């Protein structure tokens, strides 16, 4: 029999119950017991519904109230000193590590967050040093295994492996220079040994598969995803593990060599056939073909059909979507539907004659055929335009040095120009107005008037504050990707398809790209030109870049990401050209997702960077030399992709610099970055107001590294999550520091 498995499940609940409970707990409205109860209900629902779908291996232990990496840190006693000794309950220490805490005399910032491989899910980075003493504070894997058992569901516990835990960790402040977290592996392993022995004792060693199981440890399914094993395969196949999971969604090409490597062993192979990263219905015929190959090579008892990764990256269920058309709904599968898919594929591979399985296979055949038919109706105009892209469309007319002179005359910005990253506080009033528009409680005209008023407020504030290059403040945008998706052809939207970006505090519902993308008409011109019309100062247009729109959407699976990115780039190119025609003289095209899109394997980087950078250039290069192009990135780890950042050839880039101790400026200096750059002078992710001396010190440190003529002065990201009070105070200090720099340098 071929078994089926789900590697992990969304943790927020079909109606975001966990998010609501966590936020209520943070607000002091519910007790820790209420919170635990709300979480338990969601876990129980997940376990039982996955079981009802006929899945054999059901995950437990991967649920989290904040982040699963943070769960491991807390369990392993990897708790930075700054969170200890405040008399906080363990749950509050845990949340303080995730989001900081500023109450009752305790004032500790949040830990650093990083993106989980190539996804937009952020994990809390563990901090370790030579002094770290690992110990098992509690065994969450055992607790949740027992919890599931009590709910009548036998599960397969999920644990983050020790190597991954340490590779994702960073050296803490206490660590000596040159310290490598992975050097702690021998110290960490005993904790895993205990953790696994406890699991075995609790009964977590479920058949099938009945493979070698070391006396004190349960059988291990070594789980890999998001890319291929490549050169690690021969090593992995020799490990004393009972099973190996491979991602055949991202890397179907690895199946043959993996089969050859595991065949002589007794390893059970788990085939990641149902994508954990997209929302498309699995093509059963294609999956069965791959699965049959494995069954032929290893025998049915050594094959498991699984999701490619945890389903954390997919929404809970399609059943919550009421607005998609029947045709669209038939294209998709969310987490619960995917659970049913693995069960059906496994049953088919086991030769099941069950009527329900036969019917599911038949229905899938019909759906896939319909989807293929839809896919074959491409927008020929867009396809032809992409095919006709020429290298000169990627380049500005003159090199940066020439453009810089022309732009200086045109824009007349002072030395050390001040600007912001685009958004201003998204106030309750703005969100309410948008909600009212959605419900039809106000007319389009009323809403537009409201937005104009907001823009006017933001413009007047910037004038008064003394900023040089203004923005309109983005009040009309619900989200920097959705806003554009809604105005482009080729996207559909969900109502309830929430994914976690940063714990349940920041979630997004990515739009879905379903067909060729094109721009029916201008998207932002009306707002930018309105903003420019009410001020004499230059106004910066504001767009989200092609790679970011692609990475923060669910892309199509039938055509390449490159093609989708180029289609987006052409739509944005037209928008950029229209903005220039409308009298806008600087345009920012944000690409905060360009780095996260990097494939896991370095050998794949060049191919990605080629089309990603080309897409940005295609979207921005259609203008005259006097238009100043900007781009923005929310991070600054450019060491390994520096040439690509230079190749973007944006006139100005703004980056994060306040958290990274300006390490990156040395990178820019080292490589001789030639264009203008605005390293963020303060961190907007905190309500804290930076003092003007603090900003001056930062500018001085920057100017010790960068040439005067290249420096812009700006915060490190958009201000949409900030309140007006701290925004006003912070920007006043920023302007004062720039004025000081003009006199001093
Ligand atoms: N222009 C966007 C803003 O200011 C940029 C957001 C981002 O970088 N994530 O909100
Ligand atoms: Zn940013």
From TrEMBL:
Residue stretches making up the Cobalamin-independent methionine synthase MetE C-terminal/archaeal domain: 416-739
EC number annotated for this UniProt entry: 2.1.1.14
Entry keyword Amino-acid biosynthesis: yes
Cofactor(s) the protein needs: Zn(2+)
Binding-site residues, L-homocysteine: 421-423, 590
InterPro entries xref list: Cbl-indep_Met_Synth_N, Cobalamin-indep_Met_synthase, Met_Synth_C/arc, UROD/MetE-like_sf
CDD domains documented for this protein: CIMS_C_terminal_like, CIMS_N_terminal_like
GO annotation, biological process: methionine biosynthetic process; methylation
Chain positions recorded as L-methionine binding sites: 421-423, 474, 590
Binding residue positions for 5-methyltetrahydropteroyltri-L-glutamate: 19, 120, 552
Keyword Signal in record: no
Keywords: Amino-acid biosynthesis, Metal-binding, Methionine biosynthesis, Methyltransferase, Transferase, Zinc
Superkingdom of the organism of origin: Eukaryota
Binding of Zn(2+), residues: 632, 634, 656, 717
Pfam family for this entry, one: Meth_synt_2
Pathway membership, UniProt: Amino-acid biosynthesis; L-methionine biosynthesis via de novo pathway; L-methionine from L-homocysteine (MetE route): step 1/1
Positions of the Cobalamin-independent methionine synthase MetE N-terminal domain: 4-205, 218-292
Family recorded in the similarity comment: Belongs to the vitamin-B12 independent methionine synthase family.
Name of this protein: 5-methyltetrahydropteroyltriglutamate--homocysteine S-methyltransferase
Organism: Mycena venus
